[in-house]
Amino acid sequence: MNEKEAAFLLGVSREKIAEIINDGVPLPISKTVIRLEVTRVGDTNSISDEQIDTFIAAFEAEDPGRNPPIAVRRALLTEANHRCGICRRPVARLSFHHLLEWEKVKHHDPKHMLAVCGTCHDNCTIGVIDKKCQEIYKAKLQTPHYLPDGDMDVMKKRQRDLDQMTLLFSQLPRSVLDHFFYEASGQYMPMAFLDFWGNVVDVLKSVGFHLYDNNAEQLIHAFAQPIDKMTQIASQWGHPTGPGDKLTFSGMENLTAIGFHEAIGEFVILNRTAYAAYKKTYTYLRENYLELDFEAMDAAGLSAYAGR
Predict the structure, then answer these.
(1) Separation of alpha carbons 217 and 241, rounded Å
(2) What are the angstrom distances between the C-alpha of 155 and each of 13, 73, 158, 200?
(3) Can you give the pTM of this predicted structure?
(4) Domain ranges of the chain
(5) SS3 letters across the chain
(6) Would the CA dihedral through 184, 188, 193, 194 be positive or negative?
(7) What is the pLDDT tens value at each position of the chain, 308 positions in all?
(8) Other beta carbons within 10 Å of 159
(9) Residue 101 contacts residue 124 (beta carbons within 8 Å)
């Protein structure tokens, strides 16, 4: 399997997989750092079930009951169709819950386990969802052709969200945004960014752009709206520097035009707000949408940006 597939099965991000392979991670008790061994095939990493199981086994030895082997994970994920076995939400990271308490019956038997989201896992643990209900949910999953009402709609909505986010973030390479925030912290605005951002705004304001995931949509707008306002302030109050590759507010401190200093103060605050929201957005998307290939989207965005 490739790194993306391994990330799904381990329930981690692509970046975390790269960290696990290259730098390793500490075990929970001994703090011994272990790495996920891989096989190089050309320029890519190939990861076998055995390599993942060896990695998982090291954690299971120190923290028993929390780290089922790869075959059990696959069985539970496919049984639940990669969605929570209780609420049926198609979240990217699922936990593997034991219907028979580990302390009483030490096992990783998929017949007595459920793939569940974090919220449902917590509710099972504290008894909000009792044992009998858990068994009923498990039985429903094992019923042939079981598909809860509206479940197909959930799948279609998630795929549409993925398509919309891929469209948007293929025009929003992180390196460009990181450079923008770096320049903005010094009260500069890259000239190329103005034209670039105009096309991003066109996507966000288009009739077709809508996410069923309200959290994701709100987070995206939370960093996009301040950036949009910043570009307006820079266009109104900035002036070219050097060869004209940037707009700046420096050297205009003596300007007495009404609103200038207020606008610069707003620019600084907006930059801080946008940057915090930008980081929060990417954290949310990486935790909830492992299907998104950020490396490919960044490459597409950089290609488009370089062509301007």
Answers:
(1) 36
(2) 21, 21, 5, 27
(3) 0.58
(4) 3-141, 152-306
(5) CCHHHHHHHHCCCHHHHHHHHHCCEECCCCCCEECCCCEEECCEEECCHHHHHHHHHHHHHHCCCCCCCHHHHHHHHHHCCCCCCCCCCCCCCCEEEECCCCCCCCCCCHHHEEEECHHHHHHHHHCCCCHHHHHHHHHHHCCCCCCCCCHHHHHHHHHHHHHHHHHHHCCCCHHHHHHHHHHHHCCEEEHHHHHHHHHHHHHHHCCCCCCCCHHHHHHHHHHHHHHHHHHHHHHHHCEEECCCCEEECCCCCCCCCCCHHHHHHHHHHHHHHHHHHHHHHHHHHHHHCCCCCHHHHHHHHHHHHHCC
(6) positive
(7) 888 888 878 878 778 888 999 999 999 899 999 999 999 888 888 999 999 999 999 998 988 877 899 999 999 988 888 888 998 887 777 889 998 877 777 788 898 899 998 889 999 988 899 999 999 989 888 765 445 555 557 778 888 899 999 989 888 888 889 989 999 998 888 888 888 888 888 888 887 888 988 889 999 999 999 999 999 998 888 777 766 688 887 655 555 566 777 888 899 999 999 999 999 999 888 877 877 888 888 888 787 666 65
(8) 12
(9) no
**Residue type for position 268:** V
Whole-number Å distance between alpha carbons of 138 and 113: 8
Instruction: List the structure tokens of 25.
Output: 């991670």
